[in-house]
User: What shape does this take?
Amino acid sequence: MKITTVETSRVSTIDFNNLPFGQICTDHMYVADYRNGKWEEGEIMPLQNFSIHPANLALHYGQSIFEGMKASKHHDGTPLLFRVEEHAHRINASAERMCMPTIPVDMFVEAISAIVGLESAWIPPQEGSALYIRPFMFATEEFVGVRPSEEYKFVIFTCPVGPYYSKPVSLRAEDKYVRATPGGVGEAKTCGNYAASLYPAMKAKEAGYDQVMWMDPYEFKYIQEVGTMNIFFVIDGKVYTPGLNGAILHGITRKSMIQLLEDKGYKVIAEKLSLDFVVDAYESGTLQEVFGTGTAAVISTVNKIAAGDTIINIDPSTYKIAPMLKATIDGMRTGSVADPYGWITRVESL
Ligand SMILES: *Cc1c(COP(=O)(O)O)cnc(C)c1O
Assistant: This one.
């Protein structure tokens, strides 16, 4: 892999104790081009703009997919990745759905490892902070007409981030707009899903809620997920999360939490989950915890849900499972908690 580095890194100018989310990028990026039916050798270069033709297919017809993952630091200083192969499989699932070329898993892992190894000085050492990694792929061919592009770019850039949602979040169960429907593209991490969510999210904010809780598209009765997180409820000691149904994003944090919970002896029910069931639990006093899971926040506690006429108010300071899960994952990410699953990969610093 060709590597061209910057003359002077900007890393010494960054205050790791005050990191705004997603505003600071590191010095370099990885870029690989897909042409003539195959991926060309990728390269690492100083972070820079792309030049895009006005007829770029991604801009018009939306062939663009991404991943979000994190690198952390072991307390011995080694950069660590979390479930990197899972992210490779998921970007490929998104690619297939959007009629884009898949990326060989080895190429994906090598590219992530190379950029993280090179930018290891940018991984914030503070607990809960991390180097956020954004791999993405978009169509680069210029053509006016709806068909799959024959050319693509696979790019990775990275941003040091502080703890994401440090405060508990409030949710509003959506009763008008939908995020995804089985058969649609809700399982793919593709850009249009997020564009479509902006307006309902703005409306929820205007009503005083942090995020939208998405519901099924037919009856607005069954819970799907939240903005960029999967959602969990603890009711009477059991853990509930909506079952994957073709419309819900396959969260890698979700899958990891389910495994951790089951291995710790909790009963996890990942099936169709109605809002009424949650409201009934709240009214009868058995709703114990509500939290979201996702790479950005790991665990984000929920303190309020507007569910039709019912407002659920719940106090995250009483939660036991959510903080236990977060501590387990954060601990795995610094090496202080053992990883019996092989979720953590060590990266050589370049
Ligand atoms: C990325 C994402 C998630 C969380 O997935 P993780 O793999 O846990 O980061 C959940 N929902 C949506 C819509 C997402 O885009």
User: Anything to note?
Assistant: The longest strand covers residues 130-139. The pocket of pyridoxal-5'-phosphate is lined by residues 68, 189, 225, 228-230, 249, 251-254, 293-295 (CB under 6 Å). The helical segments are 57-61, 84-97, 105-118, 191-206, 252-263, 275-284, 321-332.
